[in-house]
């Protein structure tokens, strides 16, 4: 896989804390040019042959580096990958030159059936091999290493043979891909499935991580629901601080997908993350 591009011009400027690009903020971004260092575009919103979203993304891309984040690859599906989807994605990659492309360690489509949820796989050696084969196929088609994200999970599989972080590490190693570490998902899963979030943060392979996601969950009292519709909760901030202390200043994204607030609210969340990164950097410099 030595032919994969690792250091495109846009990759080198992805740093600090970015914000998820949402249509509600198109005009604000173009008019005010906020100081956000980078934006993450939801790939599946830009797959049409034309239309206003593509026009806005083209304008915004002239001012900001972007990454692509999708939900449509269905990398864990028992069926074949959707080559039409991959071809459209490849065309968008040529058009907008994202710093990198990411999707999820899950499945959501089989034949003509589609789920509105990202469905997890059991944590098994078979699951690692299956997912790694699909990721390798997608990477070979796209000509670029992918980032794959750990997903929220509301059940535990009877067949699982290992921890989630061991599962994620195994896939990344076998597929030779990168990891998008979602801190909110780690915390949600730990609370729902009675595991230790700290173990995941300490066990995940730091050499594979290229991006971190932060988002808000909804507390349903019986369980936590990964809605991306609230401000980031304190336990997630605490876990993020642990992650940054171990991993260093990994590029971080503020995700907010429902009940979307004004852009300034997202910027305030980004400032909290930036303060955590800065404090960790100062502590490490002082220790050195």
Structural overview:
There is one protein chain. It contains nine helices and twelve strands. It is an alpha/beta fold. The chain has one domain: TIM Barrel (Alpha-Beta Barrel), CATH 3.20.20. The strands form three sheets. An eight-stranded parallel beta barrel has the order 1-2-3-4-7-8-9-12, surrounded by five helices. Helix 2 (52-61) links the parallel strand 2 (39-42) and strand 3. Helix 4 (125-142) crosses helix 5, helix 7 (197-203) packs parallel to helix 8 (234-247) and helix 8 crosses helix 9.
Name its key features:
two-stranded antiparallel sheet, alpha/beta, globular, 288 residues, TIM Barrel, eight-stranded parallel beta barrel
Secondary structure blueprint with pairings:
Elements: E1 17-20, H1 26-32, E2 39-42, H2 52-61, E3 66-69, H3 83-96, E4 101-104, E5 107-110, E6 113-119, H4 125-142, E7 146-149, H5 164-175, E8 178-182, H6 183-193, H7 197-203, E9 209-214, E10 218-219, E11 224-225, H8 234-247, E12 252-254, H9 263-287
Parallel strand pairs: 1-2, 1-12, 2-3, 3-4, 4-7, 7-8, 8-9, 9-12
Antiparallel strand pairs: 5-6, 10-11
């Amino acid at each position: 896989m030595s032919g994969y591009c690792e250091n495109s011009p846009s990759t080198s400027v992805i740093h600090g804390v970015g914000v998820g690009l949402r249509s509600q903020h198109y005009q604000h971004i173009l008019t005010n040019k906020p100081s956000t260092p980078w934006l993450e575009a939801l790939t599946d919103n830009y797959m049409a042959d034309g239309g206003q979203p593509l026009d806005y993304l083209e304008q915004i891309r002239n001012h900001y580096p972007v990454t692509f984040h999708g939900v449509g690859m269905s990398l864990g599906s028992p069926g074949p990958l959707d080559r039409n989807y991959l071809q459209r994605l490849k065309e968008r990659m040529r058009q907008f030159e994202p710093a990198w492309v990411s999707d999820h360690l899950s499945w959501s489509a089989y034949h003509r059936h589609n789920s509105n949820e990202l469905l997890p796989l059991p944590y098994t050696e078979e699951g690692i091999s299956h997912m790694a084969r699909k990721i390798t196929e997608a990477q070979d088609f796209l000509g670029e290493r992918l980032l794959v994200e750990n997903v929220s999970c509301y059940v535990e599989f009877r067949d699982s043979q290992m921890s989630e972080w061991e599962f994620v590490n195994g896939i990344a190693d076998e597929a030779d891909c990168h990891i998008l570490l979602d801190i909110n998902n780690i915390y949600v899963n730990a609370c729902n499935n009675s595991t230790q979030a700290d173990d995941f943060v300490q066990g995940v392979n730091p050499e594979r991580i290229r991006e971190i996601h932060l988002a808000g969950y909804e507390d349903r009292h019986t369980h936590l629901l990964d809605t991306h519709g609230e401000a980031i909760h304190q336990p997630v901030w605490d876990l993020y601080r642990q992650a940054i202390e171990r991993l260093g200043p990994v590029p971080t994204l503020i995700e907010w997908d429902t009940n979307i607030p004004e852009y300034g609210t997202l910027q305030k969340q980004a400032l909290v993350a930036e303060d955590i990164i800065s404090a960790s950097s100062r502590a490490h410099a002082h220790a050195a």
